Amino acid sequence: MIATSLASLWYGFGVALEPHNLMFCFIGVLVGNMVGVLPGMGPLATISILLPLTFGMKPVAAILMLGGVMYGAQYGGAICSILLNLPCHPPHAVTCLDGYPMTKQGRGGVALGLTVFASFVGASWGITEMIFLSPLLVRAALQFGPAEVCSLMLLGLLAGSTLARGSPIKGVAMTVLGLFLSSVGTDLETGSERYTFGMTELDDGIELIALALGLFGIAEFMNTVNQVAPINTKYTNIKFKDMRPTKADFKRSFFPMWRGTIIGSLCALIPGTGPTIASFVAYATEKKISKHPELFGTGLIEGVVCPEASTHSSVQGDFIPTMSLGIPGDAVMALLLGALMIQGIVPGPQLISQHPDIFWGLVASFWIGNIMLVLLNVPLIGIWVKMLAIPYKYLYPSAMFFVCIGVYAANNDFFQVGEVVAIGLFGYILLRLGFHPAPILLGFVLGSRFEENFRRAMLISRGDIMVFIERPISAVFITLCAILIGSQIYFRLKGAKADIEPADENAGISGGPVEAEIAARRVSATPAE
Amino acid sequence: MQHSHSQFSDLLRKRDFYAGGLMMLLGLGIALKGATYRAGSLMHMGPGFLPTALGIILVLLGIAIAAVALTPSGGGEEDQRVLPEHPQWWAWLCILMSPVLFIFFGRYFGMAPGTFACVFVAALGDKAATWRGTIILATVVTIFGVGLFSYFLQIPMPIFTWRGGL
User: Fold this and answer.
1) ipTM of the complex
2) Which residues between 84 and 123 in chain B have a beta carbon less than 8 angstroms from any beta carbon of chain A?
3) Which domain holds residue B37?
4) Which residues of chain B lie closer than 8 angstroms to A454, CB-CB?
């Protein structure tokens, strides 16, 4: 088993090192790193913008590039948090707490240097986990019939919507909306049109790119325009030699780094708990086991490396369910899966055996990409820091153009540009009403496969809905769903403000105070210091 | 985060109330429209089955969201305003008009005018925007964008045209 994995990995390196693929991997991590630094642009918006550019590319190159954007952005986000105290990228929000005080003490360079190192350690662990766990998961998943697939999807959707940020019930509502949106257009089985209201342009359904760019592009721009505080660049003058940590720093961050890595990889295995939750749990744990918890928040290196390692380990680990089961854990993964589907590749457990070049090429490219990122970040940090000063007033109009042309290029159709306006406005209304639109994408991407499998399961069981409980594996998934919902209700009734990690094993460590602290920071950081 | 009295005027300020209402309306619309499609039986599901079911679930979730807003500590979110503190009507309009102008100018005059109009209008939304800066930004993005998308990526859209019906 291990030998086959290693042999496949070797093959993957062959794929990833092809000059063509190597180039796109490099472009991906470079762009990702860049937008990770820019406040106000997230990986979701960037991947959606780059998605149309990948239509002409081979599937392997496309997924390597988009994956690179995803983890590249994680390296950049830390810079923003540590040097500017801007928690603009959720997974790195917690890094502000100790990163920025370090910057104020003139040790921002050291924090960045060790962050890059911790990130690499975390990512390496996540990748290793992916190499050995994915084939095991696939072997189990290949035994699944439609009923099992259906209840597994249900579990993934519920976890993705209830464990994410914000109110769980609103998250579920967004997922249901996403599932509905995927049913717009021609019904695959009967050929009848649904919810097209006579518009022939909607026959093929709502375009994934229009949905993603509307929700994460236009709606986000409407949310942030004229709300961005002027950036304080007082501490951003970082030189290469500032980044070298002392031996004592290194020693102190060694164990926190590994603890963070392990927490991150555990969080990645629970569907729905992405990097953001991983970093919060890691910080809280580190604070709890520390001998001097009162010093956290004053610039401890432990408080920087632990959440960062955790974020990266979880980002790589998130690819495991996405690639081996075809069930994305969060919106970014849903988008990557959507990119594969646009290329005509059906996600699911058969992906690894049918398209080994994609899976193993991707895994190998993670190593290559992470090494590239370490090499890029160390000398280029000065340039990234300068990019922090690009004002939002230049950023979002340029991004608007990419949104328009990207949606147009998907089908060479102006109708879809109109679609993006409508979705953007609707998305902004949802944002203002306290909904997080990310689960919409999750539901949308899984929707058609969910419906197909549900129909098939019902056909096989002759219309007996009890089949989901009667089949043992499916029953396990349904039980987990019930536990998930039950624990949410329990925490709500208990009155605990369990926003961060309500149904997590580590439920004892409440993320609440940490989040409140960050909110306080955000307010205090905005006036010019 | 104090919601002391659950008076009716208090309720109207809670955005969860509107959030729940919106979900109920959407769900109702989806379910009613879905009921016009053939539902079929559980064994042989028609095209209307799942969407109708989803619509009904959405209505129930909407009721639950609104019900949470009724409880004194409901919502739990600090921000209960529907509009942000400083509503940016002008900027919102600019952002939404930007793709609309892209469609209009793109369809009748070609990619370059479409791009220029799109970036120009979007940039006007920022309160620090100046005419000069906006024109420069729009020009730069147009040159770069046309170069990238028309020459490099070969998007089939004429750079300049006159009422060319695409």
Assistant:
1) 0.88
2) 84, 86, 88, 91-92, 95-96, 98-100, 102-103, 106-107, 111, 114-115, 118-120, 122-123
3) 8-70
4) 45, 50
* Residue B30 in contact with partner chain A when CB distance is under 8 A: yes
Residues 136-155 of B with CB under 8 A from A: 137-138, 141, 145, 149, 153, 155
Q: Does residue B163 lie within any of the structural domains?
A: no
Q: Which of A384, A95, A48 is nearest to A260 (CA)?
A: A95
**Is residue B81 situated within a structural domain?**
no
Residues B96 and B127 in one domain: yes
Domain membership of residue B157 (yes or no) is no
Distances in Å between the Cα of A112 and the Cα atoms of A75, A241, B28 are 10, 12, 52
Q: Kindly state whether residues B104 and B51 are assigned to the same domain.
A: no
Nearest Cβ partner for A176 among B57, B78, B96: B57
Distances (CA, A) of A87 to A40, A107, A159, A519: 10, 19, 25, 9
Asked if B47 and A192 come within 8 Å (Cβ–Cβ), the reply is yes
Kindly give the confidence (pLDDT) of every residue in chain A, 529 residues in length, as a single tens digit, with 9 standing for 90 and above.
778 888 888 999 999 999 999 999 999 999 888 888 877 677 888 888 888 888 888 889 999 999 999 888 888 888 888 887 777 677 888 888 888 888 888 888 888 888 888 999 999 999 998 888 888 888 888 888 889 889 989 988 888 888 766 788 888 999 999 999 999 988 877 888 888 888 888 888 898 889 999 998 899 889 888 876 666 666 666 666 777 778 888 888 888 899 999 998 888 877 667 788 888 888 888 888 888 888 888 888 888 899 999 998 988 888 888 888 888 878 888 899 988 888 888 888 888 888 889 999 999 999 899 999 888 887 777 777 777 777 788 888 998 999 999 889 888 888 999 999 999 999 999 988 888 888 899 899 998 889 989 988 988 888 888 888 888 889 989 998 998 888 888 877 776 444 444 333 333 333 445 555 555 444 443 333 2
Check CB contact under 8 Å for B102 and A404.
Answer: yes
A57 touches chain B (CB under 8 A): no
Judge whether A72 and A30 are in contact, CB under 8 Å. yes
Considering only the beta carbons, identify the residue of B126, B141, B156 that sits closest to A401.
Answer: B141
Which two three-digit tokens encode residue B158? Answer: 């004429």
Same domain (yes/no): B19, B66:
yes
Q: Which of residues 417-446 of A touch B (CB under 8 A)?
A: 417-418, 420-421, 424-425, 428-429, 432-435
The model's pTM is 0.84
Query: In which element (H, E) is residue A505 found?
Result: none
Classify the phi-psi angles of B154: left when phi > 0, otherwise alpha if psi is within -120 to 50, otherwise beta: left
**CA–CA gap between residue B125 and residue B93 (Å, rounded):** 8
Angle among Cα A103, A368, A256 to the nearest 5 degrees reads 40
Q: Which residues pair with A185 in a beta bridge?
A: A194
DSSP secondary structure string, A232-261? --TT----GGGGPPPHHHHHHHHHHHHHHH
CB contacts under 8 A, A 386-415 vs B, are 391-394, 396-398, 400-405, 407-409, 412, 414
Considering the domain architecture, whether residues B64 and B93 belong to the same structural domain is answered as: no
Tokens 């081996």 — which residue? Answer: A324
Q: Are A88 and A74 in contact (CB under 8 A)?
A: no
**Is B2 inside a domain boundary?**
no
Domains contained in chain B, number: 2
